[in-house]
Amino acid sequence: MTVATQSLEQLCINSIRFLAIDAVEKAKSGHPGLPMGAAPMAFVLWDRFMRFNPKNPQWFNRDRFVLSAGHGCMLQYALLHLTGYDSVTLDDVKSFRQWGARTPGHPENFETAGVEVTTGPLGQGIANGVGLAMAEAHLAARFNKPDSTLVDHYTYVILGDGCNMEGVSGEACSLAGHLGLGKLIALYDDNHISIDGSTDIAFTEDVGMRFEAYGWHVQHVEDGNTDLAAIDNAIAAAKAVTDRPSLIKVTTTIGYGSPNKQNTAGVHGAALGTSEVEATRKELGWDYEPFVVPEDALAHFRKAVERGASYEAEWQETLAAYRTKYPAEAAEFERMLSGKLPEGWVDSLPTYTPDDAAIATRKNSQATLNALAPALPELVGGSADLTHSNLTELKVSGDFQKGQYQNRNMRFGVREHGMGAICNGISLHNSGLIPYCATFLVFADYMRAAIRLSALSQAQVIYVMTHDSIGLGEDGPTHQPVETIASLRVIPNLIVMRPADGNEVSGAYKVAVEKQDGPTLIAFSRQNLPNLVGSSIDSVAKGAYILSDSDGTPDLILIGTGSEVHLCVEAAKKLQAEGKKVRVVSMPSWEMFDIQDASYKESVLPKAVTKRLAVEAGSTFGWCRYVGSEGDVIGIDTFGASAPGEVCLQAFGFTVDNVLAKAMALLA
Predict the structure, then answer these.
(1) Mean pLDDT, to the nearest integer, of 121-141?
(2) 550 and 525 housed in the same domain
(3) Residue 343 annotated as catalytic
(4) What is the pLDDT of residues 491-501, one digit of tens each?
(5) Do 459 and 579 belong to one domain?
(6) Containing structural domain, residue 555
(7) pLDDT given at position 446
């Protein structure tokens, strides 16, 4: 077939294919196989079904598109360029995978307008899609009225075999089926090839039956290479099913059109090579030079600009009418979209005095969440089946369930990995929702990929982590996080906090709610902790502050974090009684302290005071940056033990007497 005999639709599909082929070839790096095989389904979806505005990528009521198989990102970049997004010019396509280009090696939401979520680690994207669909369902249930549909959009996902192999997809899709998310439609690029070769070497399950068991509506398009009508009909049928998410299994040929490499692992993750590119051009009748798009195809794609403007204008009319009929709801809706927090929300944060009873900071967290919930209607979230241990239930609301999407308590089940990825999707829906999710701190390891992607994607997720040390006691070493906090502190753009008492808990939540460009992880104790003299909500934002002090330059600085700060306070009193000048510094967050200016840091930890002792019931790794070569650390660099919490803490040296002894040794 020559160009002259190709239909307009074939020209459009091949335009997608060859932009991908040419970009990967120029970069000598990338994954051309998926774009070549998935181009027909992507064309039908973007051309006939998706509602978006290329000139306003952040238009609220757009359909969301997620390329979960993010290695095939040239598919998405080609679509963004062809449909008229200013974020992906032809020069960007030519600069695929190069320094400074808006076409990185996997889709990055913070790099390229039109990319909703960062994908790359397989399975994360479909899990993000579940979060996007949950956000849409929640907002629709809260704001739509019988005579006014303000929130009404779909989440479309293209995922591959690798996504279906990764466990996170199963966690998220199981929950999506339970919730009946009818506006989530996933197209499964069933091409039977992964990096190691044919998927039948490791992956022979019936994916469709698995998704049916999850509660999804499942269809199969047997010829995804050429049968555009079947793809069209399947998407239309999926949209007609409103009480279940839909999976459309689309069987394709990876690298379609490449005479010698299609249907092989060789086309999955490497450029075709000069000779094979020419052979593919011949095979598909493509007589254009690299990066040239036929005028007829480009003109057809660019109709999306006019359609998009019309879609948004129509919605703006709906919003204007909604403002008139429902001014209070409209004001709240638009405030949330703007990212502006409600007036006076900070006043709802609980405050404490030393006269208040000692309680576990997880209970302070419970009180804070429930104080914030009425003041912050955008706060939604829940726990991975540990609600009564994490204490995360919002008393002002019921459970987010099928048919009850207006509620704010989300039951994630025992699905930590999926929970984190879903919350990323909720946050990146960009509708002002602030999701939180909870588990025991040690199980942060189960969701580390999602936490890392929260930080990379600049997603505002609040990670509520309880049972934060060996102080949790009898459950033993499997549940006692000793290295977890240290390992989390190395993730860029993640704020890690260990509050010492009730005021610091309120301060930690204040930081988390105000940080809109990334996640915050707050670790809470199981054991009771006293409310401290000098603790401060506002000082938490400094990362570290002087909790108590002596007159003049101190002889020794005791630095505590979380549940160990009160040990430093008591030890300091005894040292001061013996005439020692001792400063106690509470350091709830390394990251927040590190971004303070030099003068503030010097005021808290003056360089002249080299006798420093840090106390934390966790790994000593990294504390040298604050205690220096002449200081010391009381920590734990082994696994814990199964015993009552107080016994564990005493056995491992987290006592006032041990702090006192170590301090005296330093001073000596």
Answers:
(1) 98
(2) no
(3) no
(4) 999 999 999 99
(5) no
(6) 542-667
(7) 97
